[in-house]
Prior knowledge:
Layout: H1 2-8, E1 15-18, H2 30-46, E2 51-53, H3 57-62, H4 64-70, E3 77-79, H5 82-90, E4 101-102, E5 107-112, H6 114-119, H7 121-127, E6 130-131, E7 134-139, H8 143-148, H9 152-169, E8 175-179, H10 187-194, E9 199-201, H11 203-217, E10 228-231, H12 235-246, E11 253-254
Parallel strand pairs: 1-10, 2-3, 4-6, 5-7, 5-8, 8-9, 10-11
Helix pairs in contact: 1-11, 5-11, 9-10
Amino acid sequence: MLEAVKKRLPDVEFIYLADSAHAPYGVRTADDIYALTCAAVQRLFDAGCDLVILACNTASAAALRRMQESWVPEGKRVLGVFVPLIEALTERQWGDNSPPREVGVQHVALFATPATVSSRAFQRELAFRAVGVDVEAQACGGVVDAIEEGDMILAEALVRSHVDALKRKMPQPQAAILGCTHYPLMQAAFQDALGADVAVYSQAGLVADSLANYLDRHPGMLGTGVSAYLTTGNPKRVSDRAVQFLRRQITFEAA
């Protein structure tokens, strides 16, 4: 996701924090996710960020609303990654508070972590804006762990297994949501398993366009930080994984 955002906004400084020491979030409790997310966001605030994007669907689903209501300091903003996706799916802007209406897509498959699925945050936000949309969620246990370990053969096998499980519940989805920011690395596997006639929504480009629009409207949120890659885990190990995925040198520092 960061690569798409940087390509869309090449002149903006970004500080990226990977909470590698506590990943994956998707199997943790809501309170644990909230505490970890607050700690990570505070680290970014301390580094000079005024605006933080939770590039994690689990954190966006399980922690964001609670953070916004009771924790985020004045003058700071924390945004999630659900909004651009729902805007694209319903073809309406987030600030449009008109009653829910019918949309073109009626059968949606949601692939996400167990915590995101159990939160039902995606279904709740979608219901505010659209009627008659059947969402079938599939918790994709093991996929994030396999990706983090660099075992893409296992990750692909798990993707196919989870798609098969979803199709037993919803044989003909019209669209599929990759509801975890790791899953775009497996987008080709999802698309192949689902079939060419299923529209697969990946968040990276949507989030990049939405962030560019937000900064056009709120230029004062750019903050004062200097670009950096931070991790709570082992910097060398995380750097090696980043090189494996992105095919270019990235050096992480200890957070």
